[in-house]
Amino acid sequence: MTATWTKLRDGSWGVRCEDGLAEGKTVSVTRKDGTTSCATIQMRVWGDGQIAIYSIVPNARDGHGHEMMACVECGYSGPGVKMATDMSGIRAPVCRRCDDGPYNSFA
Ligand SMILES: [Zn+2]
Questions:
Q1: What distance in angstroms lies between residue 100's CA and the mean position of ligand 1's atoms?
Q2: CA of 64 to the centre of ligand 1 (A)
Q3: Alpha carbon of 25 to those of 38, 57, 64, 90: distances in Å?
Q4: pLDDT for the residue 50
Q5: How far is 26 from 67, CA to CA, in rounded Å?
Q6: Do 41 and 23 touch, CB atoms closer than 8 A?
Q7: What per-residue confidence (pLDDT) applies to 18?
Q8: Quick one: which of 13, 28, 90, 107 is 20 to 30 A from 43 by CA?
């Protein structure tokens, strides 16, 4: 099914799509205007077995329609932020400064 954006209880954006998606999975999310962008599943917030709502790994946008990844540790977004995999296998963006913290890059 098509994933769509939804507001979470804390005011941040999440996605609504089929239930059973793994954390760290990237989904293509369709906006109301029909354009799509990618989001990375962070955590399942709610689900009924068919449809679920997930929080997503935070992203910032650079103003040109491109998605810039924001570091999950310090919130920095810009050059040097890349996807890294932590010890539990969850992929998340981290900046160069935080990369030698809990996240180990295998990219
Ligand atoms: Zn950082």
A1: 10
A2: 23
A3: 10, 10, 24, 9
A4: 96
A5: 13
A6: yes
A7: 96
A8: 107
Give buried/exposed letters for 48-72 (b at 16+ CB in 10 A, else e).
Answer: eeeebbbbbbbbbeeeeeeeebbbb
- Reported as a single tens digit per residue, the pLDDT across 9-58 is 888 889 999 999 999 898 999 988 888 888 889 999 999 999 999 999 87
Cβ atoms < 10 Å from Cβ of 45: 16
Continuous H helices in 1-105: none
The tokens describing 82, both together, are: 């890349």
Locate all alpha helices (DSSP H) within 13-88, ordered by sequence: none
Those residues whose beta carbon sits under 5 angstroms from the ion ligand 1 are: 71, 73-74, 76, 95, 98
Strands (E) across the chain are located at 3-7, 13-18, 26-30, 36-47, 51-56, 59-61, 67-69, 82-86, 91-94, 103-104
Note whether 17 and 27 are within 8 A (CB). Answer: yes
